[in-house]
Design a protein that fits this description.
The structure is a single chain. With about 350 residues, the protein is an alpha/beta fold. The protein contains 14 helices and eleven strands. The protein has two domains: about 240 residues, Spore Coat Polysaccharide Biosynthesis Protein SpsA, Chain A (Alpha-Beta Complex); about 90 residues. The strands form three sheets. A seven-stranded mixed β-sheet has the order 4-3-5-9-7-10-8. It has a two-stranded antiparallel sheet with strand order 1-2. A two-stranded antiparallel ribbon has the order 6-11. β1 and β2 form a beta hairpin. α11 runs antiparallel to α12 and α13 runs antiparallel to α14. It is globular.
Length: about 350
């Protein structure tokens, strides 16, 4: 039995945690985001979550590297590398595999990456039995159970050299932690949530700079450099958090193309659209079905769903004019919300295409 002078129960359950847990939560945030007020409310929810998990300290908001404060030339010279070679990566095959993913980074992407690096630096300075919980400000979670599972993961990694992703999809229903490299060969699809120990943070920071990619890719690349060492990289199964920008609750400011891969509604519409479009003919019945699904969805007004509706009109109704109107509406919303738009942005590509002759 735990010594009652050293242990206290978490709220509303009989799980005991150290009274003075060396656990800190760091929230990656940008005050310049167009929906900063919504994300600030999410930070309040995170504070309640970590309190219920038994972590006494309030979350530290990490926003030192705001995009507007970064001088483009100085920031690139100091923090970024676009070199084809990397002396720090002994395996040339890894460098070549990642090379197609290297593009000119937007300041939003560099800002996000540097704030993650700053959070890792703070974890590295914690005492050895500490654990850092790093969350982005748009995470979604189940408030009824997440605090219990978060406390469990923190307890399991404490004292180890480990980074555990908290929001990645992993095959299988068995609860626990899976080896990251068994599921993802190169990089995680998102980095909205992870726990990391000081030993692990220090190992990662040895290779974290310069930044070569958007951070979810760059972190995977950096972890590749640590594979020959003792660093364990794992995935919490099932996941505790969901990237809100991929579920439809908010927009991403750092990814130029960000479909709602974690939204069941989006997946259902996309699947129906692709199945019907394969015939290459007008299909009003399927178009009506897709439009009904979008209309009934809680995220039906999201620019990515509006974009899908535009595709429905273009591909299944043959109405290029209405499709162009919808693509324009989706593009305008993305622009207004200060998201990162470039040649990879599918909404922009389809908008441009809609001004040409209809696709036969």
């Amino acid at each position: 039995m735990p010594d009652p002078d050293e242990r206290v129960p978490t709220a509303n359950r009989g799980v005991f945690l150290p009274k003075k847990m060396a656990t800190k939560t760091f929230v990656i945030h940008s005050r310049e985001n167009a929906v900063s007020s919504m994300r600030t409310r999410r930070i309040d929810a995170i504070a309640e979550l970590v309190s219920r998990a038994g972590f006494s300290a309030k979350p530290d908001v990490v926003c030192e590297f705001e995009a507007s404060a970064l001088n483009t030339r100085d920031a690139v010279n100091k923090y970024v590398s676009y070199a084809d070679s990397d002396p720090g990566m002994p395996d040339r095959a890894v460098v070549d595999a990642y090379a197609p993913l290297r593009t000119n980074m937007h300041l939003y992407q560099l800002s996000c990456a540097m704030n993650h690096v700053e959070a890792l630096r703070r974890v590295a300075e914690m005492r050895e039995d500490g654990v850092g919980v790093i969350l982005e400000d748009d995470v979604e979670f189940d408030p009824s159970t997440c605090h219990e599972r978060l406390a469990d993961v923190v307890r399991e990694v404490r004292g180890k050299e480990e980074l555990c992703f908290l929001g990645l999809p992993a095959a299988g229903d068995e609860a626990g932690r899976r080896d990251f490299w068994e599921v993802f060969r190169m990089f995680p699809p998102s980095v909205e949530s992870y726990v990391v120990t000081p030993k692990a943070a220090r190992a990662i920071l040895k290779h974290a700079l310069p930044i070569r990619y958007a951070f979810h890719v760059h972190l995977g690349y950096t972890l590749q450099k640590c594979r020959d060492g003792p660093l364990a990289v794992t995935i919490a199964c099932p996941g505790l958090f969901v990237d809100g920008s991929k579920a439809g609750s908010c927009l991403s400011s750092v990814l130029p193309n960000n479909p709602l891969v974690y939204s069941g509604d989006y997946a259902a519409v996309l699947q129906a659209l692709q199945a019907a479009s394969a015939n290459g003919t007008v299909d009003v019945v399927s178009a009506d079905r897709c439009e009904a699904l979008i209309g009934a969805s809680k995220v039906g007004g999201h620019p990515q769903m509006v974009h899908l509706l535009g595709r429905v009109y273009a591909e299944l109704r043959g109405d290029n004019e209405k499709a162009r109107e919808l693509f324009q509406a989706a593009y305008a919303e993305l622009s207004q919300m200060k998201t990162f738009i470039n040649h990879e942005t599918q909404v922009l590509r389809d908008l441009i295409r809609s001004h040409g002759p209809p696709v036969a």
